[in-house]
């Protein structure tokens, strides 16, 4: 699959995961890469950008094993943005799926 | 690649970012390795899953400069943002650098015209000093008139420059989205 294409969907994946609960960087990278073949490293530039755009805030939390972890929490602004993205995503995929189905009829 | 090698390359790639920013990035990746090791992965596995440190660094630098160009659009910021975006891929060389050079030439020529109009009495005086016999009142008044026109051009160029650089930042954003995939209709 096209690398650039996947990167576009990354943003949506990160926001969707954070909508359910707060996560730290490793979790986000790991959860996404289990389902979508991405370079986990590309999650971090994205996280920095979205944090600067105030879509989420960060806080440090001690962990029982190892060093403290930086958690990401979705803001209201981020949630609004997520809903907008989901809306666009659904429209986009529906459109593509329709086209693919129409393709089937021809065969 | 082990953790040390990965971090070394990453740090080299982001050394032009401010110290604070570098520290945060390093912390993020230190944490990533620490959690991965705690889960029983090897350094090599974690590094392989992260991808190449060069690419990660490039994306970090591009993200940083674009963000900065948004807030304060002075010339230096825009230049750095342009280079960072070009760094994202050779594809951009034509698409970003072409319009950028065109834009800079237009702006530069506007300023040069305005500036030389303003300075025209000076040039006329230099001419008179060198060849006193050529002094003509007509030239004198025309050059003063040009100064007036030049002042208006320079004032106009100030707004044109601001407007165009804002527009260009939008274009860079569009370009990053295009390169990163997922063009949305905004």
Automatic annotation (TrEMBL), chain A:
InterPro entries per the UniProt record, alphabetical: Metal_resp_DNA-bind_regulator (IPR052509), Tscrpt_reg_PadR_N (IPR005149), WH-like_DNA-bd_sf (IPR036388), WH_DNA-bd_sf (IPR036390)
Pfam family, one: PadR
Coiled-coil intervals: none
Gene3D superfamilies (UniProt xref): Winged helix-like DNA-binding domain superfamily/Winged helix DNA-binding domain
Residues covered by the Transcription regulator PadR N-terminal domain: 14-83
PANTHER family: PADR-FAMILY TRANSCRIPTIONAL REGULATOR (PTHR33169), TRANSCRIPTIONAL REGULATOR, PADR FAMILY (PTHR33169:SF24)
Protein name: PadR family transcriptional regulator
Protein source organism: Virgibacillus pantothenticus
Lineage: Bacteria, Bacillati, Bacillota, Bacilli, Bacillales
From TrEMBL, chain B:
Any Pfam family: HAAS
Keywords: Membrane, Transmembrane, Transmembrane helix
Chain segments annotated as transmembrane: 81-104, 111-130, 136-160
Record's protein name: DUF1700 domain-containing protein
């Amino acid at each position: 699959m096209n690398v650039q294409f996947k990167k576009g969907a990354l943003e949506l994946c990160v926001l969707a995961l954070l909508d359910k609960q707060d996560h730290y960087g490793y979790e986000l990278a790991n959860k996404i890469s289990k389902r979508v073949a991405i370079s986990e490293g590309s999650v971090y530039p994205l996280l920095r950008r979205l944090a600067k755009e105030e879509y989420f805030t960060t806080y440090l939390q001690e962990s029982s094993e190892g060093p403290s972890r930086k958690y990401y929490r979705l803001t209201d602004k981020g949630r609004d943005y997520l809903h907008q993205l989901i809306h666009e995503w659904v429209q986009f995929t529906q459109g593509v799926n329709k086209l693919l189905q129409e393709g089937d009829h021809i065969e | 690649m082990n953790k040390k090698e990965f971090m070394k390359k990453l740090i080299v790639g982001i050394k032009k970012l401010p110290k604070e920013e570098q520290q945060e990035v390093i912390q993020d990746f230190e944490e990533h390795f620490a959690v991965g090791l705690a889960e029983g992965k090897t350094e090599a596995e974690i590094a392989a899953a992260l991808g190449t440190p060069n690419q990660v660094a490039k994306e970090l630098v591009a993200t940083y400069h674009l963000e900065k160009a948004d807030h304060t659009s002075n010339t230096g910021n825009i230049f750095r943002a342009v280079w960072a975006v070009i760094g994202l891929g050779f594809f951009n060389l034509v698409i970003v650098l072409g319009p950028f050079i065109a834009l800079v030439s237009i702006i530069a020529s506007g300023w040069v015209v305005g500036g030389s109009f303003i300075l025209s009495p000076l040039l006329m005086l230099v001419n008179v000093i060198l060849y006193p016999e050529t002094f003509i009142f007509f030239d004198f008044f025309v050059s003063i008139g040009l100064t007036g026109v030049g002042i208006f051009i320079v004032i106009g160029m100030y707004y044109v420059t601001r407007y165009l650089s804002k527009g260009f930042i939008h274009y860079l954003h569009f370009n990053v989205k295009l390169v990163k995939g997922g063009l949305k209709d905004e």
